């Protein structure tokens, strides 16, 4: 996540998180540290995983005090191990204490997503299928969570509702059917937008192919039906399968031959990676 991306997309969100945590003052820190004192604290990894979000972690402290110095011994995407010193933060001890939880919340959450994504992406290695995330993200965390998916070796589906057309069951119901929904989408949307449609059975699949869908999502279909769907589609459209895909059950989908597998679990069910700021000490 580069500086331009950070300033355009992340700074306001990070500031909102800091304001959530500090509405008027950090009363605990101010009681034990009433004046400026230079200090340093270490960033320690407490379990094996994949690190993601280092620049977001750093930005938390910079927004509190631009003179804070953050150094890292690793980079986003690196595998890290229990007990490893990942970096350090040097600056006003009041800033180190007040920014600690917000900075760790971002880094732990993003690293957890990257770790979980890497485990699933490794299972797909060697196949043609790409692993996608979804819009099942934490409100106001999407930019961070989708970045973490990429760090973990996954790919981003559409970022938001303005980013692409995905006709799901309720859109199809509102339009009056698969063919009508696709026809209306083609009439309304710019020609540069691909049209993806969700289908739940082979009859809907055939309608989607005939209507000229660009991508067909096979939602909660049986493995046998999905294999038949891939055969019927045969290059007429790209295929994606979805529906409660997790690390534990993705193996059954690897040989189906779809172009994409999407998993909401990447962002809504990945556990955090345990990290800590330790050994805070003053520097004279």
Question: Could you characterize what this model shows?
Answer:
It is a single chain. This protein has helices spanning 3-21, 27-32, 54-64, 93-124, 142-151, 169-175, 178-188, 202-211, 223-233, 265-268; strands at 38-45, 49-50, 69-72, 79-80, 85-92, 130-132, 165-167, 195-199, 215-219, 238-242, 260-262, 275-282. The chain has 284 residues and is an alpha/beta fold. It folds into 2 domains: 3-116 and 271-282, Quinolinate phosphoribosyl transferase, N-terminal domain (Aldehyde Oxidoreductase, domain 3); 121-268, Alpha-Beta Barrel (TIM Barrel), CATH 3.20.20. The strands form 3 sheets. A 6-stranded parallel sheet has the order 6-11-10-9-8-7. A 4-stranded antiparallel sheet has the order 3-5-1-12, covered by helices on one side. The chain starts with a helix and ends with a strand. The model has no long low-confidence stretch (mean pLDDT 95).
Strand and helix layout:
Blueprint (H helix, E strand, L loop, with lengths): L2 H19 L5 H6 L5 E8 L3 E2 L3 H11 L4 E4 L6 E2 L4 E8 H32 L5 E3 L9 H10 L13 E3 L1 H7 L2 H11 L6 E5 L2 H10 L3 E5 L3 H11 L4 E5 L17 E3 L2 H4 L6 E8 L2
Parallel strand pairs: 6-11, 7-8, 8-9, 9-10, 10-11
Antiparallel strand pairs: 1-5, 1-12, 2-4, 3-5
Helix pairs in contact: 1-3, 3-4, 4-5, 6-7, 7-8, 8-9
The residue ranges in which pLDDT falls below 50 over 5 or more consecutive positions are: none
Q: What share of the residues does DSSP label as strand, in percent?
A: 15-25%
* CATH hierarchy: architecture of the largest domain: Alpha-Beta Barrel
Calculate the mean pLDDT score and round it. Answer: 95
Give the oligomeric state of the chains in this entry, treating copies of one chain as homo and distinct chains as hetero.
single chain
Q: How many distinct beta strands?
A: 12
Distance between the termini: 34 Å
Q: What is the CATH C-level name of the largest domain?
A: Alpha Beta
Structural class: alpha/beta
Q: What count of structural domains?
A: 2
Strand order across the biggest sheet? Answer: 6-11-10-9-8-7
Task: Write down the Rg.
Answer: 23 Å
- What sort of overall outline do the alpha carbons produce when their principal axes are compared? elongated
**What is the overall number of helices?**
10
Identify the CATH homologous superfamily of the largest domain.
Answer: Aldolase class I
Main beta sheet strand tally, sense and closure: 6 strands, parallel
CATH fold annotation of the largest domain: TIM Barrel
- SSE order, as H and E? HHEEHEEEHEHEHHEHEHEEHE
| Helical residues, percent | 40-55%
